[in-house]
TrEMBL record:
It is a multi-pass membrane protein. Keywords: Cell membrane, Membrane, Transmembrane, Transmembrane helix, Transport. Residues 73-252 form the ABC transmembrane type-1 domain. The gene is phnE. This is Phosphonate ABC transporter, permease protein PhnE. It comes from Massilia soli.
């Protein structure tokens, strides 16, 4: 005999109030912002947009410029890779006390540092670090590392906290030191998810590194800002294509690595 489905769970009043509040906030946003949809899709706007986009064709294909674009592409890739590597080191160093591995005293300050690091966007970090490190990819790399350390540190801390505690307790009960018990029980559980988070953040840092050049942090973004400011649209089109190709390649490589890790 077919059993009747259980009754749907009752929604709490606080959840309904929260949903109504969010709906009211969205409605108020649309009501207060001067959204000129008619002007956006007017004939003049469409014609101006078409003329602007037509200026990007054909892309610049001269060999010296392509070599310069390739060097900037490699610089952007290096910024993202090194920034992510530094973020993994810094994030792991902060994740341990943030997960309560060194007692409750350090837990709150460590999480506060992580909140500060990830609450400041990469562009703001780059603008601040350009004053100390000067123009170029070094400031961009440090900006990526600072912001990503806060993101990865919080994710790593949550993964470590949510790991199954019984294997580590068993090793400790049998005489293993705290460090050895963590390395042989908790870390192997958390490592696949931590690697997945790291690869995902590397994908994001590729896009961020391409944008950081706008404030003078080197790479493809700096080239794009330079050529757009001079209205050299053909050269800018080549830089944009290089950005798209780089992001697509890194996304594909990261996806393949994550698939291999989760099998």
């Amino acid at each position: 005999m077919r059993r009747a489905l259980p009754a749907a769970p009752r929604r709490s009043r606080s959840t309904m109030l929260l949903m109504l509040g969010l709906a009211a906030l969205v409605a108020a946003s649309f009501a207060t912002l001067p959204l000129e949809w008619a002007a956006l899709f007017s004939a003049d706007a469409l014609r101006s947009s078409g003329e602007f986009l037509a200026g990007f064709a054909p892309p610049e294909t001269a060999l010296p410029f392509l070599q310069k674009t390739l060097a900037a592409t490699l610089e952007t890739l290096s910024m993202s890779a090194l920034g992510t590597l530094l973020a993994v080191i810094g994030g792991m160093a902060l994740a341990m006390p943030a997960a309560g591995r060194f007692g409750k005293v350090l837990r709150v300050p460590a999480r506060g540092v992580l909140n500060v690091l990830r609450s400041i966007p990469e562009l703001v970090w780059a603008s601040l670090l350009l004053v100390a490190a000067g123009l170029g990819p070094f400031a961009g790399t440090l900006a990526l590392a600072a912001h990503t350390s806060g993101v990865l540190g919080r994710l790593f801390a949550d993964v470590i906290e949510n790991a199954e505690p019984h294997p580590e307790r068993s090793l400790r009960a049998n005489g293993a030191t705290a460090g050895a018990a963590f390395l042989y029980s908790t870390l192997p559980q958390a490592l696949p998810q931590m690697l997945s988070y790291t690869l995902y953040r590397w994908e994001n840092n590729i896009r961020a590194a391409a944008v950081l050049g706008v404030v003078g942090a080197g790479g493809l973004g700096q080239m794009l800002k330079y050529h757009l400011s001079l209205f050299q649209m053909e050269q800018a089109a080549t830089v944009i294509i290089a950005m798209l190709v780089l992001v697509a390649l890194v996304d594909a490589a990261s996806f393949a690595l994550r698939r291999a890790l989760t099998r």
